[in-house]
Design a protein that fits this description.
By secondary structure, the chain is mainly alpha-helical. It is about 75% helix and about 0% strand. It has a domain at about 35-105.
Amino acid sequence: MPVFTFKRRESAISSTSAAILCLSALCALVPDAAHAGAIENGAGWVLDVLTGALARTCAIISVAILGYMAWFRDFDKARAVWIVVGIVAVFGGASIVDLIISAVN
């Protein structure tokens, strides 16, 4: 029989809520962090990388591979549909988000 028993105490606040609370406090206490100019520049750079020439090249390679698969009769329609849906999501992402935002407003 163990001498010490430990009960796990349930916390009143989850770790996600605590992180959101800390981030909100940081933004309230540091006005420069609320403007987030550097973060916006970084996010814009990531967006340019993910939807720019690299993404276009990957999409072209994917479609070319689908063409070769069809040529050698190893064509899977489900895979082709998912590749096309992915290309639409990557390159139409900004339009989809704008559509959702305009529907909410």
